[in-house]
TrEMBL record, chains A, B:
This is DinB family protein. The keyword Nucleotide-binding does not apply. It comes from the Bacteria. The keyword RNA-binding does not apply. GO terms for molecular function: metal ion binding. It comes from Parageobacillus caldoxylosilyticus NBRC 107762. A divalent metal cation binds at H47, H127, H131. Belongs to the DinB family. Pfam families: DinB. SUPFAM superfamilies: DinB/YfiT-like putative metalloenzymes (SSF109854). Keywords: Metal-binding. InterPro entries: DinB, DinB/YfiT-like.
Amino acid sequence: MSQAQKLVQYFLSHRNVTVELINKIEEKHYDYKPTPTSMSAKDLATHILFSFYKFANTAKHGDPALFTEKIEETETNLQKLAQTYTEKTKQLLESLTNEDFERVLDLTNVFGAKIPTAQFLQMAMDHEIHHKGQLFVYVREMGHTDLPLFVKRG
Amino acid sequence: MSQAQKLVQYFLSHRNVTVELINKIEEKHYDYKPTPTSMSAKDLATHILFSFYKFANTAKHGDPALFTEKIEETETNLQKLAQTYTEKTKQLLESLTNEDFERVLDLTNVFGAKIPTAQFLQMAMDHEIHHKGQLFVYVREMGHTDLPLFVKRG
């Protein structure tokens, strides 16, 4: 299996769970926040989806500027966003070449360091897993008790 | 940097945040649960600490049986547990040799598969990050609003 294929498998083993959780969020709960200073469910879900897309886009094109670019998106349905951005992200990850993985990205402006692409993509995974962990608590607080395991291996 | 040193650095970049969160949990909140079906704060914190220790112990000794062994522990103070188990886990990770990393662990009984040690240790990281994400929500719900970033790079 190529490095890209392994990464796609690893990505989906967590992303499919993220999508399963997002699919449980009804529109009436989009503005749900556990506390007044928390991100809303809508903001948390969107943040997860947009972030990994930006990590992948930055890695594919070797362009750190893409990481901080704002995503203009008119779709507001979380289920549709989850489907679209998972597909776009998967396609980017699938297209990564060995050369892409070996590039070092100058992310001094964002993280104060130059980061090898492989490590940058692990940070993308960690970011997804972290916020998905939070989403589990949110979704349980919305009344769902039948929740998946935190990772689904192929 | 050796593979073990890199792993210790990666482990601590997340574990130090876990410990910072655990240090915010006052005894009166040990039994706090966001919902009746959630793990209590005490159970969640203990699960994080014991789990990584068991991952590391299993990896170090190449013995899958260590993964499911129950930990007998009389200490109930979460701050003390965090300190002790972080130290024990760090020592195990530091001691990993290249040979240890190359071993394949037969975890058919637990995960239905044989898993290379390096991948098994990434699962340990993912597990920590997932539950730490949940802990962030818990601690915010206890009234703390000044929370660290989800990872602290050295």
